[in-house]
Amino acid sequence: MSTLKDIAKYVGVSVSTVSRVINEDTSRHVNPETRKKIWQAVQELGYEPNQSARSLVQQKREKPKASMQVGCIVFAPQLRQHHPYFSPILSGVNKQLLDSGYTMAYIHSLEEVRSQPIPGKLLLETPVDGVIVVGEIDPPILDYIRRHVPVVGIDITSAGTDYPIVDYNRIAVGKTAVQHLISRGHRRIGFVGGETGQDGTPEEPRFTGYKYALMEAGLPLNPDWIVETEWKVDRSYGEMLAMLESQPENLPTAMLAASDMMAIAAMRAAAEKGLRIPEDIAFVGIDDIEIAEYTSPPLSSIHIPKFEIGTIAVNMLLDYIQGRQQMPLNIQVPHRLIVRQSSDYTRT
Fold this sequence. Notes:
By secondary structure, this protein is an alpha/beta fold. Helices cover 42% and strands 16% of the residues. The strands form two sheets. Strands 2-1-3-4-5-11 form a six-stranded parallel beta sheet, with helices on both faces. It has a six-stranded mixed beta sheet with strand order 7-6-8-9-10-12, with helices on both faces. Residues 2-58 form the HTH lacI-type domain.
């Protein structure tokens, strides 16, 4: 186990400075940046502050009453409210916590967790019985939290098999969407995706499902029809517009988008270029957010049971908190195709 001396050497400060920060000694000023680096070192080196160690020992001896509180860490600040995909998930989390006699102690963004003396300080100052993580998170932070309390992840694709996860099968979702477009007579199908890999194509499972469906149908994957967005709505609009302008004689007849928000922006670009949807170009999104039903035309989408994901995650977490489950389960919720006007047209 790391010591104060190890932390001091790692950061390049004195042992006394490290001690003052960890013990919340305000008798002498410590530069905020230095304070931040010390807490980061605590996390990265796995150091257990004495207060935390004493707390854990006391818990084991006294078996105190549960706090009946759960914490939540989300990938980005905007996910905490009004996000069309994540807000229903958090609503499900909140409702199931209340129905189970628990309350939400806090919702912190990942950036807040990175920039403050959290999670070490957070676990001490705000006692919780478990934590729900929504979206991607730094593995060292995830490991640190799990050493103290049970953790369940939602929408985490990089945590591996060591953590309990509630998610959906993104490969199957991509295949379902493309198979629907193929059934409507489309043979020239493009993709609007998120982040790209080294070869310039999207590197996430929905794109993999898109590729598999094309391969199984013996259809070509044309790199010119791949729109990379970095998960930004404005890029989806701009890059789709650029693709349509650069190859007017070689356009796809349908597009699968990795999310409804990306699809809506891409549809606007197509409409501005005078293309009829779905007669000239069809669109299918993924998520089935509430607004998908009210776009012009209404957007076909793959429905993901978002509210239910939140409730399932809470039930899983309570199973770990109350000792009913120890193995890290990976639960994948079902999905279903919702056909609306944006793709409900059969090409002949």
